[in-house]
Amino acid sequence: MPYQHLLYDKTGPVVTLTLHRPEALNALNPALEAELHAALDEADADREVRAIILTGAGRAFSAGYDMAPSPEQPRSRLDPSGLSLGEYLKVWWDNDTDNVRKLLHLWQLGTPVIAAVNGWAMGGGFWYALACDITLASEEAVFGQPEVRHISNTTFLFAALAGWKAAHRYALTGDHLDAYEALRLGLVNEVVPAAQLLPRARALAERIAKVPEPSVRLNKAITCMGLQAAGLYGGLLLNGVLSTLAHASHLPLRDELFVAMRQGGMRAFLEKRDAPFRPEPFGPKAQG
User: Fold this and answer.
1) Residue 277: Cβ-neighbour burial (10 angstroms; 0-12, 13-18, 19+)
2) Which neighbouring-strand residues pair with 138?
3) Edge-to-edge strand list for the sheet holding 177-178
4) Of 33, 147, 181, 280, which is the active-site residue?
5) Is residue 185 within a helix (H) or strand (E), and if so which, with residue range?
6) Is residue 286 scored above 90 in pLDDT?
7) Contact partners, residue 231, CB within 8 Å, separation at least 6
8) Model-level pTM?
9) Which of 23, 187, 204, 222 is surrounded by the most beta carbons within 10 Å?
């Protein structure tokens, strides 16, 4: 099927999905996310496909969920103006419980998904990288959840992979972490030079393709279903409920950020939010 915001490339037994909104750092809007999940299902249903690579076009894997106003969404989803408390909570309940379902979709596929993180992986983009079966990172990759600074949520996947102390270090500050810190914490499998990222992901995907399909499918299920049975699924369900409360906990600080946005756009919003936290712990590339 044709895709507008995503590139679908099938070469041999490997499909490469490239998030393709480079002008927006591959920020996730409803259209892109719908295409991503349709493409995952398309690849998973193709019996010739033995592995999927997920990456991003340009400077980013994905900058996370798109907060910028658009013709389809003229104001930020964070803005409760004109909504009753019940309506505002319902907006975030639908959003956050659906986000959990989308992350778990990657686990329900029989085909393994390899994330090739080529640059910025923020917020929801970071979560998708964590949810993939294997994650490779370019030396230029930068991870983080800076949205907690305007009242948002982390993901239980962080604590499940890195432990709760490490998860708190970054979930409670929104600080960025570079590829080598992500490797140290167990959030990625390997760090490679930028030019080698996709070739390395491709080589790994082709290596998986040499293993009989039932073995790959069932061994992925052993891991993913076992972790869910051991409690990860319950943790993610609770994650969705508490994310709703986080997003709906509107404070005067948010109003100040909206004033900045109205006066100077999304860049002004981010500058007001993040300026007090600079310099970031992992150097100049995390300050751009």
Assistant:
1) middle
2) 192
3) 60-62, 120-122, 142-144, 177-178
4) 147
5) helix 179-185
6) no
7) none
8) 0.95
9) 187
147 is catalytic: yes
CATH of the domain at 200: 3.90.226.10
> Looking at the predicted structure, is the pLDDT value of residue 288 above 60?
no
Q: Which residues contact 219 (CB under 8 A, 6 or more apart)?
A: none
- Note whether 30 and 73 are within 8 A (CB): no
Beta strands in 13-75 (DSSP E): 14-19, 51-56, 60-62
Whether residue 283 has pLDDT greater than 90? no
Please choose, from the candidates 10, 73, 1, the residue with its C-alpha nearest in 3D space to the C-alpha of residue 205.
Answer: 10
Total count of domains within the chain: 1
Give tens-digit pLDDT for 61-118: 999 999 877 766 767 888 999 999 999 999 999 999 999 999 999 999 999 999 999 9
What is the C-alpha to C-alpha distance for residues 236 and 227, in angstroms, rounded to an integer?
Answer: 11
Pairing of strands 142-144, 120-122: parallel
Contact 31, 44 (CB under 8 A): no
In a domain, 1, yes or no: no
Q: The domain containing residue 99 runs over which residues?
A: 6-286
Is 106 domain-assigned?
yes
Query: 117: helix, coil or strand?
Result: strand
Average pLDDT, the chain: 95
